[in-house]
Amino acid sequence: MEEGVTEEARLCFYPFLSAASNYVEALGVTLDDLITAATFERARLRGKERVREAVREGAVRKPVIMSTAQAEMELLSYPFARILVSCISNAHLVRRYALSEAKSAYNKLLEDSSTGSSSSAGTDLIYEMAQEFEIQVDFSRLSHEHEHAQVQMPFVDYLRFTSNLRDKRWKLVNRGLEKGQVNLRKGEFLRVIQEAIYARISKDLPLDVSGALCESIRKYTRDIEAELEERRKKFGDSGFETSAGFRVKDPSCFPPCITAILANLKDGVNVPHTARFAVTAFLLNLGLTVDEIIEIYKNSPDFDEERTRYQVVHIAGSQGSTKYTAPSCSTMRTYGNCIDNDDVCEKVNHPLSYYKRRLKLKQKQRVEKGVKSKNERP
Ligand code: SF4
Predict the structure, then answer these.
(1) In terms of Cα–Cα distance, which of 13, 200, 196 is closest to 109?
(2) pLDDT value of residue 286
(3) What distance in angstroms lies between residue 254's CA and the mean position of ligand 1's atoms?
(4) Which atom of ligand 1 is nearest to the CA of 339?
(5) Counting atoms of ligand 1 from 1, which one is nearest the CA of 258?
(6) How far is CA 92 from each of CA 21, 182, 351, rounded to the nearest angstrom?
């Protein structure tokens, strides 16, 4: 543990740990107290903020803990935030909240393990996390062939936590496998831990909460719902955003496959390479810039701006004209990327044709509506 940092303050950064829930349990605060007692209003407000930060920023801010009382409120805010998310019961919110908590913990882990890298602190932290998620890490059996590896973990545990990591560097064949152990750098191991944290946080969400309980905390959930609604209005139902402004005519006409991939990217879900290619080529064909597309990938768990730029530029081509056309429906089907197809899909064989067709239909409906209201005028 860092010098001068109390155990309860440290647990505030990792509220999903068993030690944190034991600490909270030992406080003896009942659910009723947490929901209604004036003493815990600070914990409730902070719980609400946790969720709002996740919605707004995709990360949960780590506070500066000055006292035990403050640490306890912070620790209590975590179960309250989970109750809030459960009452709203929105699949997108559940994913975004769990991912935001996991990402914030990962950043803190990276920070803590690098400050302690030369001492035993970094190693202690790795052992602690490994123990928490029942992983047998080993520092002693590393061979000289893998001089960059700092941690070994059993391949069964590795597979248990990396099934959502799509980048090819995570594939088992691309790792050094020695006697059933996978070699990892410390940072990579912590990235695996982020996946374990995400799985733990999202496991029981939404919690089974009663309607009466949700009603009693309506004043907190109302603010979060307003935040969600504001984002929906700002960024549209297509589910993604660009800082440079969205230049596509009408994202509501996107085919269901592209909408589904974009929603996953927005929620920070790992998306297979073929789906990334499809969505990138589709949006480039529609006229989005490289920078606008990079913005879309910023929520991805493994976002690396340089690598993403390289890949998008490669698909865009260097001469201004897009090098690749978006894949056809049959290619999308081959790779399992044809998702949620609807009746318009039956009339097209390409996602771009779907988009054009839906745009035309929408324009026609608008014209018809205009004519109708003109005729109805007195
Ligand atoms: S049929 Fe084509 S446009 Fe429709 S969801 Fe499948 S891939 Fe997308």
Answers:
(1) 13
(2) 83
(3) 10
(4) 5
(5) 8
(6) 25, 33, 24
- Euclidean distance between CA atoms 5 and 81, whole angstroms: 24
Determine if ligand 1 sits within 6 Å of the CB of residue 275: no
Q: How far is the CA of 74 from the centre of ligand 1 (A)?
A: 46
183 φ, ψ to 5°?
Answer: -90, 135
How would residue 185 be classed by pLDDT, with cut points 50, 70 and 90? confident
C-alpha to C-alpha distance for 340 and 260, rounded to whole angstroms: 8
Cβ 114 under 6 angstroms from ligand 1: no
The dihedral through the CA atoms of 334, 299, 267, 346 has a sign that is negative
Q: What is the pLDDT of residues 62-120, one digit of tens each?
A: 888 889 999 999 999 999 999 999 999 788 788 889 989 998 999 898 888 776 544 56
Residue with tokens 């099934």: 163
Q: How far apart are CA 299 and CA 266, in angstroms?
A: 6
What letter does residue 343 receive in the DSSP assignment?
A: T
Ordered alpha helix ranges (H), the chain: 7-11, 18-27, 31-36, 41-57, 68-88, 91-115, 120-132, 155-162, 186-203, 211-216, 218-235, 256-266, 273-285, 290-296, 305-316, 329-334, 351-376
The tokens for 108 are: 């803190």
Q: Which atom of ligand 1 is nearest to the CA of 256?
A: 5
